[in-house]
Amino acid sequence: MQPLLRPDLDRLARALPLRPRTRYAPSPTGYLHLGHVVNAIYVWGIARALNGCVLVRIENHDRVRSLPEYDAALLEDLAWLGFSGDEPIRRQSDEEWACEDALHALSRSHHVYACDCSRRDIAAAADTPGDEVRYTGRCRTRGLDAAAGCGLRVVIEPGLERFDDALLGEQAQDPAAQCGDLLVRDRDRHWTYQFAVTVDDRRQAIDLVIRGADLLTSTARQIRLARMLGRITPPIFLHHPILLKPSGQKLSKSSGDTGVRDLRAAGVSAAEVIGRAAAAVGLLEAPRPMAATEVQDLFRPM
Question: Which CATH superfamily, name and number, covers 9-110+161-169+193-298?
Answer without folding.
Answer: HUPs (3.40.50.620)
